[in-house]
Amino acid sequence: MCSSLGSIGELLLQSVERYPNKVAVKSKRKQLTYTELLQEIANIQAVLKGLVRPGDVVALQLPNSIEYIAAYFATSLLGATIFPVYWKVARDEVLTICNYVGAVVLLTNKVIIQKYKGTDLFCLDVTSISRKSFTSLHVEPGSLSQPAILLQTSGTTSKPKVVALSHENLISNVIAHCHSLGLTPDDRVLIALPFPFGYCNTSQLLSHIYLGGTISILPEPFLPNQLIKQIKEDHITVFTAVPTMLLMLEKAIRKSYMLENLRMICFGGGMLPQFTLKKLIERFSRVQFVQTYGQTEAGPRISSAFLTSNFSVSDVGLPIPGVEIQICSEDGKPVPIEEIGQITVKSPSVMIGYYKNAEETARVLKNGWLQTGDIGYLDKDGHLHVTGRLKNVIKTRGIQIHPEEIEQFIAERFPVSRVLVKGSSSSLHGEVPVAYLEPQPEAVIDANAVIAVCRQYLSPYKVPHEIKLVKNLETTFTGKIRRYI
């Protein structure tokens, strides 16, 4: 699966050799060919070589930018392990996590670096490194099994874990992802998700570098009209989003769009109401929508579903090449087709483990199978359906309730931007469901009407005991609702 590639750095070197004069990456300010990008990498390496040794952990905190990509590959080609941190993460959080992973340096820019003055964290502004010509590139021989990157999970708990992925994990996932979607060197991808997000790191950044495609970077903040404008200007063929982005796009775009080059919109990472998706499919009628499923611990891509007119929102499609899926009962035994259980995954992309956390690693990796913590089933056609998450289950008088089912029900019937259902302690029932609704702008929602509709169509124990209307539901940096605080 990994071909002859020994490291993720070689994904880039392969494309430099094949497409030296092709545009590799475009930002608002500039664009670089593959050869020019390699020179940027060499310039950063010239400064890092005396500071970084093979096996060191190098933290990277930059906005989505050409400099991020250059620093990323400069680190990898030196044989070090990359630890990307979202640029908006607070200083004290960065100091804590960098200390935990043992980062020897933080690569950043002249603005962010000011936050760390007076701290013990050694920082380097890679955006101010002098631009030289003919600086030699250093390539440290790679090892497929060594950690290539450390990623904080994009989960919604208050204690994110650090996932260690090897070069083999990443390369096998990249190749399988590209094959499953039919991506080609002619594709031009527009990246709007944060680079440190596992979905973006593998399925967008590394995949299109591997192919020799062209990457365009959408400036923050995410604005739907700016998205459409850049898709047109850069002749974008592929765009990947999280549900929050598509919700914003559906609200902003009130007419059909004929985008000549755009052929595919991929999305994943959370629930998207069926009616929202149907509207988007109508408005972008020539675009193939693909629902993807994954987990940082799995590399991240696990499966993909090419949506048709009769799609199901729970259907996340067939596993990508090299991925095995089993649905297991509480005692770990495989269950029959159509029966719900925990989704477990086995593939060359499954992580080495949680960094410096052997106990948690042993809990989720059993005989090579990743216990995803997600609940779902396989249908007769081999499609995976995701119905919820184990730790979200609400137990009412011994009955298990999947809050995602209630969330989906409400989201499809009321004008909400987001909805969250959580368990609340009850002396009589143990737990009862409570729904938190974030209304769409200018929408008026009657809490009693929501409960009335739920009573009409849902089983009695699934009806929320209370509806709370909130101004904003807190989200993670990847757009998921934060369930635990």
Question: What would your notes on this structure say?
Answer:
This protein is of the alpha/beta class and 485 residues long. The protein folds into two domains: 8-385, Rossmann fold (3-Layer(aba) Sandwich); 393-469, GMP Synthetase, Chain A, domain 3 (2-Layer Sandwich), CATH 3.30.300. 28% of the residues lie in helices and 27% in strands. The protein is built from twelve helices and 26 strands. The chain has helices at residues 8-18, 34-48, 66-77, 91-101, 167-181, 198-211, 224-233, 243-252, 274-283, 358-364, 403-411, 447-457; strands at 23-26, 31-33, 57-60, 81-84, 103-108, 123-125, 147-152, 162-166, 188-191, 214-217, 238-241, 264-267, 288-294, 301-306, 315-319, 324-328, 341-346, 353-354, 365-366, 369-378, 384-389, 394-396, 399-401, 416-426, 430-439, 466-469. The strands form five sheets. Strands 1, 2, 9, 10, 11, 12, 13, 14, 15, 16, 17, 19, 20 and 21 form a 14-stranded mixed sheet that branches. Helix 3 links the parallel strand 3 (57-60) and strand 4. Helix 1 packs parallel to helix 6 (198-211), helix 2 (34-48) crosses helix 3 (66-77) and helix 8 (243-252) packs across helix 9. The longest helix is centred in the first third of the chain and has 15 residues, at 34-48. The mean pLDDT is 92.
Give a concise summary.
The protein has 485 residues and is α/β, with parallel strands linked by helices. The protein contains twelve helices and 26 strands. The strands form five sheets. Strands 1, 2, 9, 10, 11, 12, 13, 14, 15, 16, 17, 19, 20 and 21 form a 14-stranded mixed sheet that branches. Strands 4-3-5-6 form a four-stranded parallel sheet, with helices on both faces. Strands 7-8-18 form a three-stranded antiparallel sheet.
